[in-house]
């Protein structure tokens, strides 16, 4: 059975637990990722002739498994696995791998043996068979590698998370430099001068759509090793990753000159204070600063940007992540910025949210450079995307909709008020070449003004109502249903404040709009449900979601009130949560729904059966389609069971406390039990008149004693009140137990019936369950939730305005005066006169 993406990620991340003790995340990542790499290349290339990665005999993962438990396991991994593997492949160096015999990090003796043995065992999971992994468009393992890198970066903190560029930022950069629209081939070159672990470089290569030549340089030797492994894991074994300082010793050259590339991207260290160490900027042998100026000694941002420009072909384009300071800082940087603008090299600037990057919390921007159209360029396209993000633990992250909105605005040069616009050079020159985004784009939300006249005289300002014009365009008569004119320029609420939502939701025009939106979704669902049911083994899930999401985005383009990017985000969220796992299962196994037992092991290794599940079709969908009546009967039993529990709780509360009638029937913790109730009843029976009690029991067995007979018993023997309370509780407990037993039996029967249904399902039934009942039903519910949000937003705004101006100032003053008079009267009545 195919492993789900989410399960692969979590199982690999759990391996990190084996090494957490005493080791920083930036260190144990090297061991986990190296082992992942060895497992992958062993599965994919061992025994394959002419493979891009050679696996020497005895230097694969199977040989590593054979070392489990060996007293010298760490030393043997270094000598028998890593050394031969590195020697056989020019792309690898032994220094790329950590020392598996390092006692300072792994412990010594038994501790090291157990730690490495346990770590190897995690990768022995049969589901982690990477021989079936295919990198063409859907690299499940490469994505898992990226997942681990992101988690390591998060755990490493600000000082050690710089080796990783967030995938979302990488995707934006990959799309805005235009490589996806260019005619690319293996001759197309892509370069990252500060490549870190290589994630940004790979994203650009993936965006090309064809195999391109990747080049990267990274000054941290351990991180450059990670980048080389990352290239291989993403099926780019020929990528060239060089170690070394890019500014002082650029490794990629044509003769003595710096090699030039078609595309260049980078996320260099922000404001590098040591950028010029080992370099004389005034005599740069590669003329990177000629014609622009020399960056400040303590601010290396423009040094990296100028290196990128020098590394671009005359037709090349690129993008660089830089701190916002490069847009407005003065002195030497102002002169460089002026020269860059005048030469037309800066195509665009995109302001990003704060706290996106692992090395810093400050906001950054993407500077897009383009040499091809530099002479003809008339201005710079600017985007302020600082407000679009989601919280993700200690960091912020761009959502799918944020990425798409940025790329759409940039690639289509869309003028979006408060978000994006093209700024001409004349305007930039008037601002003395200061490129700070707030000078050109006002992204701040409009203030919610308070109307003094409305506070003094009452009424809701007509201007506030007109600000909701998007709603009135869709529902023109709704406005007159909600408001009546009070005086020129002001209106009153025409309905009670408590009825605002129902007045909106039930209005004919809004109901018609909701119905139109329902029909609009239904047309998309009908078309795409058939396409999804046609999926076959071997599909590329990323292509599936790409086509599906773009179609949904286009389907909702131009629709009033509803934001197409919000709709798009619902689909992308569900994809990440569920659909992508389902599609990967279909890609490998086809339309199969096979339930399996959930077996858990305790600390002693004892197995426990925790029931069963089916990933692609959970039990609830089988029940809803085939056993709805059985489930309804169980639901009815559960309602009765809840009522019985409520009655027990009520009776328990009635007779609680030390003086309560059930005080003698409680445990030390105050719980009433059937055993104690029966024991107390037996004790009371021994104390009471036997004949009288026997008569009562007879009546009880015949159907119970009526209120009149109870009164007779109480008049004769008042202690029977406790007997009545005990019997009432026993009766309720019996009813509760009978109902609970009935529920248990019914659920077991339904569980067995559902389990037995899976082998009988046809492929058509499986497709209907997955596509119609599971996928489309959830997407439908999420998108229809947008309609509720629309009505709620209007409801809340109208209510806010109504409450704000509900009581005019004179009325408030009169109320205060009245209250002062009453308080003064009360004080005088109490003798506090003044």
Structure description:
By secondary structure, this protein is of the alpha/beta class. Among the domains are: 1-160, Ferritin (Up-down Bundle), CATH 1.20.1260.30; 631-756, no CATH class. The protein contains 30 helices and 18 strands. The longest helix has 42 residues, at 763-804. The termini are far apart.
| DSSP strand content | 5-15%
Largest sheet: 9 strands, mixed
Query: Do you know the CATH architecture of the domain at 1-160?
Result: Up-down Bundle
Q: What is the overall silhouette?
A: globular
Number of strands: 18
CATH homologous superfamily grouping of the domain at 1-160: N6 adenine-specific DNA methyltransferase, N-terminal domain
Rg over CA atoms, rounded to whole Å, is 36 Å
Segments where pLDDT lies below 50 for 5+ residues?
A: 134-138
Please estimate the helix content.
40-55%
Number of helices: 30
Using the coordinates shown, work out and report the CATH topology of the domain at 1-160: Ferritin
Helix-and-strand structural type: alpha/beta
CATH class of the domain at 1-160: Mainly Alpha
What are the defining features of this structure?
single chain, 834 residues, alpha/beta, Ferritin, nine-stranded mixed β-sheet, three-stranded antiparallel β-sheet, 18 strands, 11% strand, globular
In short:
The protein contains 30 helices and 18 strands. Its EC number is 2.1.1.72.
């Amino acid at each position: 059975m195919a492993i789900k993406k989410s399960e692969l990620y979590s199982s690999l991340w759990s391996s990190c637990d084996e090494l957490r003790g005493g080791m920083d995340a930036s260190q144990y990542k090297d061991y986990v990722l190296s082992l992942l790499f060895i497992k992958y290349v062993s599965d994919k290339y061992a025994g394959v002739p002419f493979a891009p990665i050679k696996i020497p005999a005895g230097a694969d993962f199977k040989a590593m498994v054979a070392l489990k438990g060996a007293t010298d396991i760490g030393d043997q991994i270094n000598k028998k696995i890593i050394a031969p593997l590195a020697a056989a492949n020019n792309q690898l160096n032994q220094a790329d791998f950590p020392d598996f015999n390092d006692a300072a990090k792994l412990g010594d003796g038994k501790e090291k043996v157990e730690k490495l043995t346990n770590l190897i065992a995690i990768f022995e999971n049969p589901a982690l068979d990477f021989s079936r992994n295919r990198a063409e468009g859907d690299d499940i393992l490469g994505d898992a590698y990226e997942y681990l890198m992101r988690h390591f970066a998060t755990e490493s903190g600000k000082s050690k998370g710089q080796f990783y560029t967030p995938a979302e930022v990488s995707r934006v950069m990959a799309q805005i430099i235009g490589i996806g629209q260019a005619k690319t081939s293996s001759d197309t070159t892509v370069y990252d001068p500060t490549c870190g672990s290589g994630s940004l470089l790979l994203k650009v290569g993936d965006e090309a759509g064809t195999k391109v030549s990747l080049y990267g340089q990274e000054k941290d030797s351990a991180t450059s090793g990670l980048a080389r492994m990352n290239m291989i894991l993403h099926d780019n074994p020929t990528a060239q990753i060089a170690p070394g300082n890019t500014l002082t010793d650029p490794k990629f050259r044509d003769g003595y000159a710096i090699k030039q590339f078609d595309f260049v991207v980078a996320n260099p260290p922000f404001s590098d204070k040591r950028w010029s160490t080992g370099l004389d900027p005034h005599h740069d042998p590669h003329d990177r600063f000629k014609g622009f100026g020399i960056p400040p000694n303590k601010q290396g941002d423009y040094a990296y940007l100028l290196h990128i420009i020098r590394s671009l072909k005359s037709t090349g384009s690129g993008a660089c992540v830089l701190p916002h300071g490069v847009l407005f800082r003065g002195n030497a940087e102002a002169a460089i910025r002026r020269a860059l603008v005048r030469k037309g090299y800066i195509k665009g600037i995109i302001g990003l949210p704060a706290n996106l990057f692992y090395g810093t919390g400050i906001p950054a921007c993407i500077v897009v450079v383009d040499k091809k159209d530099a002479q003809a360029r008339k201005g710079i396209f600017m985007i302020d995307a600082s407000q679009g993000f989601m919280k993700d633990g200690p960091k912020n992250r761009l959502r799918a909709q944020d990425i798409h909105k940025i790329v759409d605005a940039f690639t289509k040069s869309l003028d979006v008020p408060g978000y994006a616009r093209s700024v001409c050079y004349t305007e930039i020159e008037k601002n003395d070449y200061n490129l700070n985004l707030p000078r050109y784009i006002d992204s701040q939300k409009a203030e919610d003004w308070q109307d003094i006249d409305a506070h003094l005289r009452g009424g809701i300002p007509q201007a506030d109502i007109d600000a909701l014009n998007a709603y009135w365009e869709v529902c023109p008569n709704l406005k007159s249903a909600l408001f009546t004119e009070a005086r020129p320029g002001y209106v009153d609420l025409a309905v009670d404040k408590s009825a605002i939502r129902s007045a909106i939701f039930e209005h004919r025009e809004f109901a018609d709009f909701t119905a139109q939106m329902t029909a609009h979704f239904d047309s998309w669902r009908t078309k795409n449900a058939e396409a999804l049911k046609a999926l076959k083994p071997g599909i590329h899930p990323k292509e599936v979601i790409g086509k599906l999401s773009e179609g949904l985005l286009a389907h909702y383009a131009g629709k009033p009130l509803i934001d197409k990017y919000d709709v798009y985000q619902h689909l992308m969220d569900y994809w990440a949560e569920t659909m992508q796992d389902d599609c990967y299962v279909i890609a490998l196994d086809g339309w199969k729904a096979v339930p399996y037992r959930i077996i858990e092991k305790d600390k002693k290794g004892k197995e426990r059966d925790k029931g069963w599940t089916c990933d692609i079709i959970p039990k609830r969908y089988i029940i809803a389609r085939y056993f709805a009546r059985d489930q309804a009967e169980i639901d009815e039993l559960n309602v009765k069971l809840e009522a019985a529990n409520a009655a027990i709780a009520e009776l328990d509360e009635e007779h609680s406390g030390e003086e309560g009638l059930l005080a003698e029937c409680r445990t030390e913790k105050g719980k009433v039990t059937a055993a104690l109730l029966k024991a107390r009843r037996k004790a009371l029976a021994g104390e009471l008149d036997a004949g009288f009690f026997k008569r009562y029991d007879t009546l009880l067995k015949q159907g119970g004693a009526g209120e009149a007979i109870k009164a007779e018993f109480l008049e004769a023997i008042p202690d029977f009140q406790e007997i009545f309370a005990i019997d009432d509780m026993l009766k309720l407990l019996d009813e509760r137990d009978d109902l609970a037993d009935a529920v248990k039996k019914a659920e077991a029967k339904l569980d067995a019936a559902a389990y037995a249904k899976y082998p009988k399902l046809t492929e058509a039934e499986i497709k209907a369950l997955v596509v119609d009942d599971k996928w489309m039903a959830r997407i439908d519910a999420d998108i229809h939730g947008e309609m509720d949000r629309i009505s709620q937003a209007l409801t809340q705004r109208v209510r806010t305005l109504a409450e704000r101006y509900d009581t005019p100032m004179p009325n408030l003053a009169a109320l205060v005066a009245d209250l002062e008079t009453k308080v003064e009267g009360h004080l005088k009545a109490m003798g506090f006169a003044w």
